[in-house]
Each structure stands twice: as C-alpha cells, then as structure tokens.
Design a protein that fits this description.
By secondary structure, the chain is of the alpha/beta class. Helices cover about 20% and strands about 25% of the residues. It contains five helices and 15 strands. β9 and β10 form a beta hairpin.
Length: about 260
C-alpha cells in the first residue's frame, strides 16, 4: 500500500528557517488549509495519508522529507544541516519504525532529504548548505549492501537539490539547470523551467500525474505540452517558508503483511 507520512503545520512556521528567500508574513490558517488540500490530493492519487501531530516548538517540522530517506529495504534517519531542525528527526524515526528497519547518519555528517533525488537505484545527492560530503560518504556505506549508487551533485543557487531538479517520469527531469551542476545527470531528457519562474523545478510525480504548484503557469504549460498530466496545487503561503511539493510528505510502500480477519 502506498503510504504518505505528513505532519500538521506548526504554529511556529512563521519563524521558519530561510536561506534563499526574504521573510514575509505567513498566514497560518491559510497555510494549514493549503496543506490539507495537498493531503487530499495525495489521497485522491491513491496514498494512505498518515498525519503526525504538529510540533509547536519546531517551525519547519511539517517538511517531513528532510529528516529521513525511505527506501524499500530500510529508512535512513538524517542529521539535518540546521541545528534548529535537528530535533525533528526523533519523532519521525518513531513513526517510521513500524514500517522499516532504521539506519542513522551521524555528525560530522549532515544531510537533508530535500537533497536526495532518487531515480531507480541511483540516489543523486546534492552537496548544498545543508548536506556535506561526509553525509554522502556515510549514506553510500549504509546503502552499499543494498546495491544503491550515491552520486554527488554540487548545488549552488538554492536550498536543496530538489529545489532545482525533480524526476517526473518517462526518463525526464524538470530543472532549473543554473542552480546545480547538471553533468552527473547526463542521459536524461530535460524540461527547463520558464525563465521567469526560477523556483518551478520542484514537482511531485505520483500515479501518472505531476502534482505541481499553481503559482507557475508558464512551466505548467511546458509540462503539458510535453504530454504530462498536471494537477495544480496552491501552496503559495507555504512557499514563503521555502516549501516545495516533495518536502511535505514521505512516500513509500507499506510491505507489512495485512492481518486476515
């Protein structure tokens, strides 16, 4: 069963970490409404959504993608690159433990899930302000027995690798190529974001659909012209917290045997 772990929006999101954006007031009620719509879209596309309770003292805690990587064989719990966010990992590890064996990356390694672009058995790992080379080294060691390849990708213009590039299916990447080194990703087809929509590269491919921010109509037109079915979602309030679409859920398959009643 496809499962999506999400978390309710923290009332402290107004004090979120910002690296590449200027701070603007966040309407908490609107942000929560937008997040609920996002959760309903995941459900409509076939995911069972698990919603963890809000963390009032952790502003960025709704971005559940960052503290963990979930693969078929295990989940890797990550030491986030910002000290204020590191406490987010404990409750997420607890939520994942019924579904996966857990492994841990530890300091001096740092890593955030937004820097991990998985395509098959390749994990492209952004080298960014949040993820360092030691984090990549530890991840490669943990995953080597499971035959995954970890490939470093320098990131320069944005928060995470997946702020700049995401995989949308059909051997295709949606990207702002000016924000990262595209050479490690040679061999894929590319759709470039519209020049006036530099932040439009983060999309969530799910069930033959590309879930995509409603605020980027020119890039959406490019996706549709290439034959992709696009479901737009308004995350305009959450984007003030440097949110994309992938960062607000952890998607994986639940392989546990179902009890027969």
């Amino acid at each position: 069963m496809l499962t999506a772990i999400t978390r309710a929006v923290s009332p402290a999101i107004v004090h979120c970490e910002l690296t590449f954006l200027d701070r603007h007031p966040i309407d908490l009620a609107k942000a929560r409404r937008q997040h609920r719509v996002y959760q309903r879209v995941l459900e409509k596309l076939g995911a069972r959504v698990i919603t963890l309770p809000e963390e009032p003292s952790l502003p960025d805690s709704m971005f559940v993608e960052d503290p963990a990587i979930v693969l078929d064989e295990l989940a890797v719990i990550l030491p986030l690159g910002t000290p204020s966010r590191q406490p987010e990992a404990a409750s997420l590890a607890q939520a994942l433990s019924p579904f996966r064996k857990l492994a841990y990356i530890s300091a001096p390694g740092s890593m955030e899930g937004g820097d991990i672009l998985r395509i098959g058995r390749k994990l492209y790992a952004g080298l960014s302000t949040r993820t360092n080379a030691e984090g990549l080294r530890q991840l490669a060691r943990i995953l080597q027995p499971h035959k995954y390849e970890v490939i470093g990708v320098p990131v320069t213009g944005c928060l995470h690798l997946k702020s700049a590039v995401t995989y949308i299916g059909r051997n295709t990447l949606l990207a702002n190529r000016s924000w990262f080194d595209p050479r490690p990703l040679a061999g894929y087809d590319w759709i470039r974001v519209a020049p006036e929509e530099s932040q439009a590269a983060n999309a969530l491919a799910l069930a033959d659909t590309v879930v995509f921010p409603a605020s980027f109509p020119e890039t959406r037109a490019r996706l549709e012209a290439a034959g992709f079915h696009v479901t737009p979602v308004d995350i305009s309030e959450l984007q003030k917290a440097e949110s994309g679409l992938t960062c607000s859920s952890l998607l994986f398959h639940d392989f546990r045997k179902q009890k027969i009643r």
